[in-house]
Amino acid sequence: MSNKLKVGIIGATGMVGQRFACLLENHPWFEIVVVAASKRSAGQTYEEAVEGRWKMATPIPENIKKLVIKDAYEVEEISKLVDFVFCAISLDKEKTKLLEEDYAKHETPVVSNNSANRMVEDVPVIIPEINGDHAKVIEAQKKRLGTKRGFIAVKPNCSIQSYVPPISALKKFEPVEILACTYQAISGSGKTFNEFPEIIDNVIPYIGGEEEKSENEPLKVWGKVEDGKIISAENPVITTQCIRVPVSDGHLAAVFVKFKNKPSKEEIIEAWNNFKAPELAYNLPSAPKQLLHYFEESDRPQPKLDRNYENGMGITMGRLREDKVYDYKFVGLSHNTLRGAAGGGVLSAEYLKAAGYLTAK
């Protein structure tokens, strides 16, 4: 009998759901027992449902090919079969929020890839290496929901991964202002080049809702838990521009930072190179051995060359130099569907299991 926790993927047929399926194929702690999607996919095998729209470079995992897709709204039935679920369903924000709460109230924890619950004050937005301790707010959330084991935890937006971890390593120098311009891959929209012909030879200077998330979510990540809720940090002040570019995977950011206590360039690079995650986060199955890596080369990082650093779970930086308006500027890169989406979700679930929040029913 397997000792692995039984997992469901809600929204299993979309790009992020497919990535979850691949990452969990041989996971040492988790086993997929349920795949769920919209009513139109329900009743088909997973293989049938994704035929002609499988977006991953690797084949459909054998362990889920023949699983029959359930309707994501069959919450009571699905909850009887799983210990927790990953949620990557594509619904509007209010419907997503209600569906995730429904699973939680059926005593099924939700590790979400969606934005719907990110700014709810008792829902942790977790980057395990940075703010895993925010998980303690879950106890207050359970009281609000009236649950014994059901809760919602969320992975932050993909666009912030390229600059929040590097700046987190510099918090002792007290950053006060940040300008981040992100150049975001098309997989962030759930599409491939075949499905997104308008991006060829083009740049689209708008991604709906992205700038608001990019400016607000880091402050929640850097916030603190008080009286059963997460109080977002007041500083640094963040402004962003988010742009869609013709790249398959990998979100690049041009980042400008002003500090209260300006460090030297050498101090910044030393802080990046010596950054170490807390032990509980460092030893997880999906955790990178070195979260941050600085390139000395003047033309790195590049998405094509560097997005898969540490199996896509690490962050790379380059081009650190002093700036005429801000103190410093640099370029950051993260893999948006690994660290930024499904991989970050799996890592968060590993952290929650290691911390005792995810258990077998």
UniProtKB/TrEMBL annotation:
Domain Semialdehyde dehydrogenase NAD-binding as annotated: residue spans: 6-138
CDD domains hit by this protein: ASADH_C_arch_fung_like, ScASADH_like_N
GO-annotated molecular function: aspartate-semialdehyde dehydrogenase activity
Record keywords, A-Z: NADP, Oxidoreductase
UniProt EC number: 1.2.1.11
One family name in Pfam for this protein: Semialdhyde_dh
Keyword check for NADP: yes
Source superkingdom: Bacteria
SUPFAM superfamilies per the UniProt record, alphabetical: Glyceraldehyde-3-phosphate dehydrogenase-like, C-terminal domain, NAD(P)-binding Rossmann-fold domains
Broad class of enzyme this protein falls into: oxidoreductase
Gene3D superfamilies: Dihydrodipicolinate Reductase, domain 2, NAD(P)-binding Rossmann-like Domain
Family: Belongs to the aspartate-semialdehyde dehydrogenase family.
Protein's name in the database: Aspartate-semialdehyde dehydrogenase
The species this protein was found in: Clostridium cibarium
